[in-house]
Amino acid sequence: MERQKAKATLEAILFTMGDSVEIDRLAEVIEEDKKVTKEILTEMAEEYQKNDRGIELTTLDNAVQLCTKGEFYELLIKIAKTPKKFVLTDTLLETLSIIAYKQPVTRLEIEKVRGVSCDHAVNRLLEFDLITEVGRMDAPGRPLLFGTTEQFLRSFGVKSLEDLPELSAVQMEEFKQQAETEVQLQLDI
Q1: Of residues 149 and 70, which shows the higher confidence score?
Q2: What are the chain's domains?
Q3: How confident is the model over 75-95, as a mean pLDDT?
Q4: What values do phi and psi take at 60, rounded to 5?
Q5: CA 132 to CA 147: how far, in whole Å?
Q6: Is the separation of the CB atoms in 29 and 39 below 8 Å?
């Protein structure tokens, strides 16, 4: 396929899909190999940047998505309803951190780390599309396994899980102490 037609095809697909699309699937559609497809996507991303466009190409793991540039968010609010905002409490952040670093993980494993029930936190994170069910553990009762979503990557500005900062032993100890304090507070109630 001619390069300009390939770009137009990729742009049309990404615009229509709205969500991210795997690079392998895009390569199949334009009948090119993955390397050439990545080159075309890189050219498109550069064109969006240098032409001062309102959209950009975002890469998430092995997928790409056509997105509105963040600098236009305030202007979008004027024309669209205010998007639903969610607040991540300390409990939700702790639970999300455990899932992000230990995935795939069961509720029981999360509760072992936190020391308290995590049902509410897991349900809220599912509602916010920051985590998803990724399967079931091959164990008695076949408990659900949870992992993070592409929305998690977008929300926290990371391209892949490898980009998450490493936790130090000091941070892990602080988390453990906070969880123990939380357990004690619940026992006192």
Answers
A1: 149
A2: 3-78 (1.10.10.10), 90-188 (1.10.10.10)
A3: 78
A4: -130, 110
A5: 6
A6: no
Reported pTM: 0.53
Tokens at residue 151, please? 């929305």
Residue among 30, 178, 163 at smallest CA distance from 116:
178
Q: How far apart are CA 1 and CA 12, in angstroms?
A: 15
Q: At what angle do helices 107-114 and 169-188 cross, to 10 degrees?
A: 90
